[in-house]
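=== RUN LOG ===
request id: a7f3
mode: sequence -> structure
chains: 1
length: 241
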Amino acid sequence: MEKAVHLSTKAGPEVPGEPTKTGTSMVDSAAAAVQSFTPINQIHQHLCAFHFYAYDMTRQVEAHHFCGHINEDMRQCLIYDGPDANARLIGLEYIVTEKLFMTLPDEEKKLWHTHEWEVKGGFLFMPGVPELVQRQDLEKVAKTYGKTYHFWQVDLGHELPIGLPNIMAAVTRDGQLYPEMVKETEKKYGISIDKERESRAYMTGPEHGIHPLANGGGKGLKLEVREVDLKPVESVPRVFV
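=== RESULT ===
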C-alpha cells in the first residue's frame, strides 16, 4: 500500500469562527494608535522555503519566514503558511551562525538543521527581491543552522492548531522535495529554482563543514507527550516570604 502524501503550497481551510466585528476592529485600531509593536517592527525580510516534518519526509510545507535580527549571529522568524493578510501563524524558527551553533550541547545540536543546500540549491528565496540583492544575505544564511517548530498542521487540512508541536527539517539534497510542489511555487512567484541554483554555485556552507549531529544526526525526530508527577507548590523553594 502506498503511503499518503501530504504537501502544502496554499493556504489551509477557512478557520472556524465569526467574521471580525466592527467593534472589535475599532478597539484594535484605537490600541494600535497608542501601542508600540517594537518586536514585530524588527522584522526586516521575507524568506520563502520548504520544510518537511523531521519524522516524515512525505509531509512537506511551503513556509514563509518573516525574520528579524537579534544581532549579527542570530535572527528569529515567524512562520506563516502564506504571505497574505489572512495567513496562519504556523511556526517559528531560530537561525544562528556556525559560531553559536558550535557552543550548543551535543544533544541540542540534533534539533538544528543546515541551510547550505537549501540556499545553494535555490530552494530558499526572497519573494520579489532581485537575485543580486538576495545573494548578499543568502551568502550568510548558507553558513547558518536553524531550529524550527511548526504548531499548525496545515498540510493535513486542520482548521485549528491541533496536537503537539513538530520539529521540522530542511532540504539537504536533491530528490527530497516533490517536483509538483516546487513547480507550483516557481509559477506562483515567477522564479526559476534552476537559475537561482546556477547563480549561487559559488556560495559555501559552514566553515567547518556540516556538523555530523545536525539534521537529527541522520535520524528522524518526533516529539511525544509523557505523563509525569506534577511537582506541588510546597516543594518549590520560596524566594519571597
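=== NOTES ===
The radius of gyration is 20 Å.
The longest strand covers residues 56-71.
=== END ===
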